[in-house]
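Question (not urgent): is this output format expected?
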Amino acid sequence: MQSFPRPCQLGLAAFLTVLSCQVFLAVFLAPLPAQAFWPFAPEEPAAVSQDPGAAPAEMPGAGLVAEAEALHGALKVMADSLFANLADPDPESGDLANGVFVCTFVDLKKLTRTSSLGRYVAEQLLSEMQQRHYTVLELRKSQSVMIQEKRGEYGLSRDPAEISDSAAAGAMLTGTYVQSEESIIINARIIDNRSARLLAAATAIIPRNRLAEQLLADSASVSVKKGEPIYLKRLEL
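Got this back:
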């Protein structure tokens, strides 16, 4: 171990100089992390303090997914109520034993106007009926399948030339929707095709959120070119 020189062997000034050098070397040459003395070391990212009770950050698109799930759930509840209101809900021998058409839901203020919302409601109720084993007849079924390379196979159509001009079913499921400032009220009904008697009805109220606004954005009325008749599909009763 190196020993300091005695003050008697050196002058006082020289002794203090040697002592200062020893202390300097002991402090600054100790095996400390070099990064602590490097002036260009990268700064550590600041720690983000998060409130334990705060909600987690929402992923992009997560809000619309939650709204879609909520809409699906609301329509499912409406379907449960609708079919529960049938006098005889038995799929094989009850009120709907002769099959059902499912039609697009329309704007209550103008019954020839609809939107993606009206089409989506009809699509989900069609699915709900099939899951309950009711006989559902597809009005848009083409008489042939159109196949296009790199595009796919098409079995549904709204072109009168591609679908049958008549169809038979005992009942029709249809309905309306009406918009308010903060909500949309959807009313569904099942009607007997022979007597026009109301067989069942149900209502759902959904919020007018981002998803609803997107589905309503393409709202349009039936348009007929001059001299072009509106196509009607005849129901065989």
